[in-house]
Amino acid sequence: MAAGNRVAAFRESLRPRSAAAELIARGLSVDLSGVGSATLPGIGTAYPEPSWIAEGAPINAQKPSLTAATLTPKKLATISGLTGELADYSAEDAEAIITDMMEDAVARALDASVFSAAAASATRPAGILNGVTAVTASTAGGLGALVADAGALAEPIHAAGGGSSIVFFAAPAQAVAIKLLAGSTFDFPVITAASLAAGTVVAVEARAFASGFSDVPRVDIAKEAVVHWDDSAPAAIGTAGSPNTVAAPVRSGFQTYTYAIRCVLRAAWAMRGTGFVQFVEGADYA
User: Fold this and answer.
1) What is the DSSP string of 108-132?
2) Which of 17, 138, 261, 281 shows a CA-CA span of 20 to 30 A to 234?
3) Is residue 209, in this structure, part of any structural domain at all?
4) Least confident of 121-125, 138-142, 146-150, 257-261
5) Would you state the pLDDT for residue 10?
6) Number of domains observed in the structure of the chain
7) Using CA atoms, how far apart are residues 136 and 285, in angstroms rounded to an integer?
8) Domain carrying residue 192
């Protein structure tokens, strides 16, 4: 299976449990294998204006003004472990169960990272809510509030040059309420995003969202690794200094018959312009 296909399969495996994977599937995907970064043309309101041309007449030549979005892959990674006895004697396939658990952890981490207001850093892409000011939620309650909020979210996206592929992402209670109140007449996709705070609804112009993945998501199993088991501030096993420091607690896989399972995914995402993400907080229709 080609690397691109394996990445696509991994993304598809996350879709049932990840709102971010749903957005990735609906947006522009770029293969970042072997690429340090990729610059993509943005989306705006200054589109070329095609004209009806007579036979043999010259065609209009225009130079639209385009913004740019840059995708620079960052590393999302985790390590989990299991004892050799569990792997050898478990009635279930322990490695498969833990691998599935790690994929679920990746899905949750993607959601929390994509639907956040965090700024870009040397280690992570910016969340799509970074720099976005919340739209004031309607206080009409029920269907009236839903209609008002949906319009208030869609209008600035349309003004920015979007509107053809709006997707709504909502905290669980609001996602249920939207589907029940609006019914089948509301033909915009509504995706449940468990990482969003209660009362939050986010509207995204999906075609303005770009993402890229580098090579394949790597899952490695080591039987003789030495690991610093710390889930918040892992350190090098030993660091030279005055005095020298040694990380703790450290476990030798060979000595303790313990497996370490590592998952590494290099990914990047960005919005191809401003105004294509809008959100409300405290939505009054749960």
Assistant:
1) HHHHHHHTS-PPP-SSSPPPTTTTP
2) 17
3) yes
4) 257-261
5) 59
6) 1
7) 14
8) 1-41+69-225+245-286
